[in-house]
């Protein structure tokens, strides 16, 4: 998923992430984690999106067991991530590259009418905006998982 473009927040039905490997029978674990990934203890993940032209405030919170709550303005929705997505989210939350992205957040350039994203995974908080030209692959993948599996 490319996140160099704004995510459509006006859709009425959230897209769902599916992995063909989830439905294919296997004779054992043949998957290899991507470079830089680790397995980690499940943690709560929160993503706060603020700003934009109309001043949005969207916040999906994913509990360690995959239950999610999404709040935006006066609305609140709940659900549960598929197990495969929950597992991938925990792997990304424990990836040491996420801590490096958080350390590189620093002062963000001003971004007129742009979004500001604050991603918290356990004790790590990374802040990004839509205008900064930085490589944040772990944060972007987490953002994509939440965009595909919650109303975010």
Overall morphology: flat
Continuous helix count? 4
Number of domains: 1
State Rg.
16 Å
Roughly what fraction of the amino acids lie in strands? 25-35%
- Strand numbers in spatial order across the main sheet: 4-3-2-1-5-6
Beta strand count: 6
Based on secondary structure, the structural category is alpha+beta
Helix content: 10-25%
Low-confidence stretches: 1-33
Average pLDDT: 75
CA(first)-CA(last) distance: 15 Å
Major sheet characteristics? 6 strands, antiparallel
Order of helices and strands: HEEEEHHEEH
Short note summarizing the structure:
The protein is an alpha+beta fold.
Relevant terms:
152 residues, alpha+beta, 6-stranded antiparallel sheet, 4 helices, 26% strand
